[in-house]
Design brief:
two-stranded antiparallel ribbon, 9 helices, elongated, 3 domains, single chain
Length: 234
């Protein structure tokens, strides 16, 4: 399954079609476009709402693909018999009356069900393993993003009093110097939340910084240098 499967599925109690992505690499690459599409559907939707809906969807996908061999009882008039069967988490809940919060994903079920796999109750265990691996990575990725958002809300924000251009110049300098590790775009996004400043079109602002005239590349950093020098010398 090198390129993954892309199908359409549906949310529980929703009429809108939802794309099913079956590899973590593709999901990570399309995360921000999926987020933009989600937010565009309703003005009060935000990233946290998007993450929660994605977690619900992919947790159901994982439970559908998570097929294991289980020992099941078969009632006979004289005694109980047992049989072994390959079932997923939703089927397990039906057998043992432990209902899961969610619904079986029919598109995932279509991918893992193969009629010729009679020894495993019609399940292709190799595809099941591939899908559960990918869905587990996707849900882990979403939980990390969710924790970053919710943890940010637990701490007081420090207000940055300045221009967007000044803020991006500062974060870019810290990133280029190695004081902030990671991807520049992610650093700008995370730091803007902590410093309570709205950043619009960061790529466009970075382009403007690069096109500054010779000698004016670090206007804000030069201001900081002068302010700090005056503090120590005056």
């Amino acid at each position: 399954m090198p390129n993954g499967y892309v199908l359409s599925s549906k949310y529980k109690n929703r009429q809108m079609a939802k794309e099913l992505i079956t590899t973590f690499k593709k999901y990570e690459e399309t995360y921000y476009s999926l987020l933009e599409n989600h937010i565009a559907t309703y003005e009060d939707y935000d990233e946290l709402h998007f993450i929660k809906s994605e977690l619900y969807f992919y947790q159901n996908c994982y439970s559908t693909a998570n097929v294991t061999e289980q020992k099941l009882s078969v009632y006979n008039e004289e005694f109980y018999e047992y049989r072994y069967s390959y079932i997923n988490e939703f089927e397990y809940g039906q057998e043992f009356n432990t209902e899961l919060n969610g619904t079986e994903n029919t598109d995932v079920k279509a991918l893992i069900k193969k009629n010729h796999k009679s020894l495993t109750n019609g399940y292709d265990l190799e595809i099941c393993d591939q899908l559960t691996t990918s869905f587990a990575k996707i849900t882990e990725y979403l939980n990390i993003k969710k924790n970053k958002l919710t943890n940010n809300n637990e701490f007081p924000k420090v207000k940055f009093h300045g221009l967007q251009t000044e803020f991006i110049e500062l974060i870019k300098a810290l990133t280029e110097n190695g004081n902030l590790k990671g991807i520049q775009k992610d650093n700008i996004e995370l730091c803007s939340k902590f410093f309570d400043i709205e950043i619009k079109n960061p790529d466009q602002t970075l382009t403007k910084l690069k096109s500054r005239n010779n000698g004016s590349e670090t206007l804000f950093l030069d201001k900081l240098k002068i302010s700090l020098r005056n503090h120590f010398t005056l």
